[in-house]
Each structure stands twice: as structure tokens, then as C-alpha cells.
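Query structure, 401 C-alpha cells:
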């Protein structure tokens, strides 16, 4: 059947872990909703082209390597030389020193993004805290001109040597598949509609099962949303995505997925971007990851423009909005960070400025946390995750708690 986005009907099956894949035409409209809930796909249907990143683009990457050991750093330097990327070894023990080194070496007319190599101990990020919980962020280091607004794309990678080398030069899949993890999908289809307008074939999962491992392995975009009733929506820890009574995806399960084409994983749940088992599992399995290092907070009032919504909905819908406006994932993340920062109240800006100056690590305002806590773990020069004829604008953000 043919229908419009406004009248799309999503059908669920009791006890199943997923809902219909939505197939769309090249124009991005929905032209068929599969009647059979879980049709079996053969291997040919889940085989897609993969290729290396553009070599000329990688020549415009600035690689900054922390204190990972001389032999390991030498391997990364050789890889950077092979790619034609500029390479800096940074042994400072402060994010301020790293930022100073980058300022002295980056060329905004040449470089397209910075790839940081190392854990927070090996290449320090900025420590932040909220309500007694501590995390780290690279949000402050993005501000290279000192005006308080992020202005350059950054990504970070760490892990075993083979993991880091892969993220420096990953394979990219062209599948146009997006997978959404949502524990309450019958509540709203706005995320699915957004991804369809971005050109994706979409599947929504309640939780991970081994049956979805192959589908996930060829996906370009994997999203975890935390909307709906507090006791039923997905929450996060450094170990897993979970509801109050069900594991949605554990680090062991993520470790078992071997991603074929460097998907972008976005998680809205709290604290999943800390350097814990879940993040490590995704990185080691060949995925990039965008998430928060502290609590994520939903808006309690509607907003006409995501740029004025410095909550998790503002960030995620801003990210979805700008995927079709920028060529690289690092550019998309930077554009979201910048837009939200430019619309903050003066008291929020002042609190962030106190952290930047080193006067405190503590954030007390929700909007300050929601603006600064998002981190991109992965290569910022990865191409933007969109399908054919992508065209999405979020519109009004509702209260969804």
C-alpha cells in the first residue's frame, strides 16, 4: 500500500522484540509496510557494499596521541603517515595543555577535524560533575578561539592497538539501515518518521536478541532513545542499556556484534559514554559512539525550536536535523553543540565558563549539563549517516516523559 508519513500505521506483535521494517521509495516516502511481522532475510539481502574512507579527506585529519606508550604511539604515527594525516604526540597532563598544542598546530583552512587518541588518563578531558556524579567531556576543548562556543570538530578513540588503528581508517557500509532501541515504541512514531525522512529503512527493537546480530552488523545508524514513562523507559549505566526490569543491550551482547561498516551509535541514556564496558565493547566491535557521561534530562515544557532546548531532546533532534546539512559526523555534532551554546541563558554560560577557567568542576544547572556532556567517540571525519534524498526538520519538540 502507499501512504503518507502523516498516516503511517505501525503494527506490533505481542511478545516480539521488534516491529516492522519500513521500506520507502527513493523519495523518502513510505510506500509499503510489511504485512508479515518478521520475515526472514537471506544473506543476500543483508550484503552491502563497504569501502574505505576518502583518502583525500583523511589527509585533512589532525591526530593527537596521548601517553599510550612509545611503541604504541609509534604504530599510530606510522598509520597517520600512511594516511597522510598530521600527527602530534601530546604528553601533557591537562586538557588545557592539549588544547594549547592543538591551537599551535591546527590549520582551520586545511584540517577538517581532530582525532584524539587515548583514555582520559592518557589524554585528559575536562572533568565535570553533577549531583555527586563525575564524568569527563571534550566539549570544552572544542573551543579553540576561547570565546566559550565550540568551533572545531573533535572525536576521541581509545582501546587496544588494533581498535585504534581501525578507527583511524575504518570501512564504511552503504546499507541505508537504521535500528532504533525503544522500550515503549507504541507510544510515538516520531523517531521512526524522522529516520524515514532521512532516507533510512528503519527497524525498532524492544531489546537485543541474537536474531538481530546480523541486522545490527550491517546498520549505518543505531539509536537508543529514553523517552516515555520513567519506570518503563531505557536507562543507562557504563555497562548496559536497561529498563527497570529488563536488559535492553549489555556490554557482553555488544561485544558479540561485529560491525561491518562503522555505524554511528547514538545513546540518549545516562552515563553510557563513560569509559566503561559498554563503550569499550562498541569501540572494539567497530562502531563509533555518541553519548553522555552524566545524567541526561528530558524537557518538561515544549519548545518550538530544538536550538533553544538544552535538554536531551534538543540535542538528539538537533543531531537528526543536521545530519542532512553537513557532510561529516564531527561537523554535525559540532553544529549541534554550537547552536545550543549560542542560545543558552547568561547564567548557564557563566557556569560553563567557571569550569573552563578551572574555578570548579561542578555543574548545578540542568542546561549546563545537557549542553556539555555529549562526547563523540570515533573518527569525526566519518561521513554523515543519511540515506537517499534525506530531508528532515524536527518542528515543535513535545514533552515526552
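Result returned for the query:
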Amino acid at each position: 500500500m502507499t501512504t503518507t508519513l502523516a498516516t503511517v500505521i505501525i503494527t506490533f506483535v505481542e511478545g516480539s522484540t521488534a516491529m516492522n521494517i519500513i521500506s520507502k521509495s527513493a523519495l523518502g516516502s513510505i510506500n509499503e509496510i510489511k504485512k508479515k511481522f518478521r520475515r526472514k532475510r537471506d544473506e543476500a539481502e543483508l550484503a552491502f557494499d563497504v569501502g574505505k574512507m576518502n583518502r583525500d579527506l583523511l589527509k585533512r585529519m589532525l591526530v593527537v596521541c596521548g601517553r599510550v606508550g612509545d611503541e604504541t604511539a609509534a604504530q599510530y604515527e606510522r598509520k597517520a603517515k600512511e594516511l597522510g594525516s598530521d600527527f602530534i604526540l601530546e604528553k601533557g597532563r591537562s586538557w588545557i595543555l592539549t588544547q594549547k598544542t592543538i591551537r599551535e598546530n591546527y590549520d582551520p583552512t586545511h584540517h577538517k577535524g581532530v582525532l584524539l587518541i587515548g583514555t582520559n588518563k592518557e589524554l585528559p578531558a575536562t572533568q565535570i560533575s553533577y549531583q555527586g556524579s563525575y564524568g569527563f567531556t571534550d566539549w570544552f576543548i572544542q573551543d579553540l578561539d576561547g570565546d566559550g562556543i565550540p568551533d572545531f570538530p573533535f572525536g576521541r578513540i581509545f582501546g587496544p592497538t588494533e581498535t585504534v588503528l581501525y578507527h583511524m581508517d575504518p570501512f564504511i557500509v552503504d546499507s541505508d539501515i537504521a535500528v532504533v532501541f525503544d522500550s515503549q515504541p507504541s507510544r510515538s512514531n516520531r523517531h521512526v518518521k524522522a529516520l524515514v525522512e532521512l532516507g533510512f529503512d528503519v527497524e525498532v527493537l524492544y531489546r537485543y536478541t541474537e536474531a538481530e546480530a546480523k541486522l545490527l552488523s550491517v546498520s549505518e545508524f543505531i539509536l537508543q532513545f529514553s523517552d516515555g514513562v520513567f519506570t518503563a523507559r531505557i536507562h543507562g549505566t557504563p555497562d548496559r542499556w536497561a529498563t527497570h526490569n529488563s536488559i535492553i543491550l549489555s556490554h557482553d551482547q555488544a561485544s558479540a556484534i561485529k560491525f561491518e561498516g562503522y555505524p554511528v551509535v547514538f545513546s540518549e541514556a545516562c552515563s553510557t559514554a563513560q569509559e566503561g564496558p559498554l563503550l569499550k565493547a562498541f569501540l572494539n566491535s567497530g562502531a563509533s559512539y555518541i553519548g553522555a557521561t552524566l545524567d541526561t534530562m528530558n524537557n518538561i515544557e515544549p519548545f518550538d525550536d530544538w536550538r533553544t532546548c538544552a535538554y536531551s531532546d534538543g540535542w538528539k533532534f538537533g543531531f537528526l536535523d543536521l545530519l542532512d546539512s553537513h557532510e561529516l559526523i564531527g561537523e554535525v555534532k559540532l553544529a549541534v553543540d554550537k547552536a545550543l551554546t549560542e542560545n543558552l541563558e547568561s547564567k548557564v554560560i557563566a557556569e560553563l565558563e567557571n569550569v573552563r577557567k578551572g574555578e570548579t568542576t561542578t555543574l548545578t544547572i540542568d542546561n549546563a549539563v545537557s549542553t556539555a556532556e555529549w562526547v563523540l567517540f570515533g573518527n569525526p571525519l566519518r561521513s554523515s549517516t543519511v540515506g537517499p534524498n534525506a530531508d528532515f526538520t524536527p518542528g515543535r519538540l513535545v514533552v515526552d516523559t
